[in-house]
Specification:
Elements lengths: L3 E5 L2 H10 L4 E5 L5 E2 L7 E2 L5 E2 L2 E2 L4 H13 L2 E4 L5 H13 L6 E2 L7 H9 L6 H28 L10 H17 L4 E11 L6 E8 L2 E2 L5 H11 L4 E13 L7 H12 L3 H13 L1 E2 L5 E2 L14 H15 L32 H4 L5 H17 L4 E12 L2 E12 L31 E13 L8 H11 L7 H10 L3 E4 L2 E4 L1 H13 L6 H15 L5 H21 L15 E6 L2 E6 L8 E3 L11 E6 L6 E7 L2 E6 L8 E3 L3 E5 L7 E6 L5 E5 L8 E2 L3 E5 L6 E7 L2 E7 L7 E3 L2 H18 L1
Parallel strand pairs: 1-2, 1-7, 7-8
Antiparallel strand pairs: 3-6, 4-5, 9-10, 9-17, 10-11, 10-16, 12-15, 12-17, 13-14, 15-16, 18-19, 20-21, 21-22, 23-24, 24-25, 25-26, 27-28, 28-29, 29-30, 31-32, 32-33, 33-34
Helix pairs in contact: 3-5, 5-16, 5-17, 6-14, 6-15, 8-13, 9-12, 9-14
Length: 755
Amino acid sequence: MGKSLIIVESPAKTRTLKNFLGPNYRIEASMGHVRDLPKRDFGVDVEKEFTPTYEIIPDRKDVLKRLKEAVKEADEVYLASDPDREGEAIAWHLLEALKLKSAKRIQFNEITKQAVTHALVEPRTIDMDRVNAQQARRVLDRIVGYKLSPLLWQKVKKNLSAGRVQSVAVRLICDREREINAFVSEEYWSIVAKLTPLDRMEPFDAKLAQINGNKAEVSNEEEAHSILRELEGAHYVVSKITEKEQRRNPAAPFITSTLQQEASRKLGFSAKRTMLTAQQLYEGIELGDAGHVGLITYMRTDSTRVAEEAQAEAREYIEMTYGKEYLPSKPRQVRKKGAQDAHEAIRPTSVLRHPDEMEKYLSKEQAKLYKLIWQRFVASQMSPAVFDVVTVDIAAGRFTFRSTGSTIKFPGFKAVYTEGKDTSELTDEERPPLPKLKVDENLDLLELTPNQHFTEPPPRYTEATLVKALEEKGIGRPSTYATIISTIQDRGYVILEEKKFKPTDLGCAVTDYLVDHFPKIMDVAFTASVETELDSVEEGKLEWHKLLHDFYGPFDKALSQAQWGPEGTDRTCPECGRKMVVKQGRFGPFLGCSGYPECKKIIKVEREKIAAVQPKESDIDCPNCGRKMLIREGRTGTFLGCSGYPECKTTMSMDKKVGIKCPVCGEGDVVEKLSKKRKLFYGCSRYPDCTFVSWGKPIDRQCPKCSSVLVEQRWRGRLTGYKCSKAECDYEEKLTRAKKEESGSEQEESQALAS
């Protein structure tokens, strides 16, 4: 038997495959794509059915040389790139670049001996529908990016960029910020009674629910205190008890979006970090004597489907470990509506590889993510959790108080895993159990507390909620979410502040300009419809050139109008009447008469001045030349730059003070700064002379254990306590209610001093 060549994408996969394939197989890696559209040219012939021109990626020339030599020595060539659109396109580009005639395409959802052996037995040809869907996406993104970015340079600011999907994601964040700014908070009050049975001390809280049988609505302090006065001396009697059993099914196994959301909620991982770590687990980990083993299935998927063999293994494990009662009568198979279903959900390749046993072979990040995937999958195959939920109504004159408690009757899947959530509000099943009560039982009032509240605006997007929104609105695909989030930060359009996305002035200005001139491109529904059409191309239901034709016509018209005005380029020369044509000059495009050189009439492109991104004059004089300093936006935030630039290149920091001195040098102020990745951190104003930095916001207090500075701990934007800034020190303190109120006052004072 001759030697066969298998070409995969990454070197990590080669190690895993070599672990269980014999000497008759040579494994090589393409290192991803080997061809792409040219970096410096458009690379798309619009006039010839949008024909793309591909060229070898410079960094892949040596790789291709090695692969060509390997092809010469092989009897069979198998293209084993990832099992998605991008992977299919990589296989096709390899076929073209290596000039292969009889290459076989194989794919596997997990890198195990069984899956790979099965794939080798049943190879196929390259799926050109899937390739064309990827080509269509690539050309669409090139058209939008290549055409819009120069327009932004001309009209707004140099070195800006736009993207078909990324710009819509920025719009979501900008729209949310406007909702927040426009929100008018309204005051309301709640009244909570702390009660207990007369014969025993078992206190519980009940909230005012009804007044005269209608929903209780207390608008202000005066109304609240009026109710308190009326309740003086009132008798509290149990008027109604409602008992019901609630069953809760486990969540489905992870798909790409839910993995990114949950890793963000529970582990604090960014989408990019999650996908990078998942890729490592998929491609294979060195497990001692077992060699290189792939621990999870393919991590780019929108399907919740699970292979029967994996279900059978999980069911056997659940029965042996937890007992028959934890096993549903039938295997649970959840189908996600609208999923492409090309591959399975994300799961461990074997549930027998317990996270505790794998931990010694994994990095901290790998161990955390693997445990999350393992727990979620095992839980998804278990019995529902069962709760007894009790709701009690307590009458006090014309007022009704209500309390709900629950007791776990059967833990079911919760013995393994509980899904995270984006709010801190308790569900009925999360409430503590109530004491045993009966109708007409008298209760003793221990405390009656009025609480002031204000309605809150919609929250800013976190990574988890942004991914959820993108998925719900059909913007992008699971494989693109991490790239979208990374790109909009790198471009300076949004920043992460307390783990929430906040648009920059630049982001909002560019968004407004694009919405004004390209409403269709920036429309959420339209962007989602393009994704649906790309799916239709992959399914062979739509010709990819038609998709591009339908997109390009309206886009090109909008581009022309944005560039040249309402008339577009359909202008006649005001001097000779001949048609004006687009020409390129050393200072950019312009309209010139087609009758040149007889007629030399030109129309220049006027650059729009958008106030939000133009430098603003300050009242500070340049220390070097005396001219006024301008407030400018840079990659890492706002700064002062001399108005005499480029003759004078003086710059000054505009970092926001937090109100305390640097805990290291004692001379500089602690200020807010932005990292290159647009993440907020804190440092000394004397940098680089002082190198103090902290991700947490420092406070003017020292750690009682090691005397290092304390920093704030926050959960979903809310202050929850303080911890030591020194990594080796484990000191931390949680805020009580009284401390929170005290801290709030201190914060207000600190902010006033800082401003």
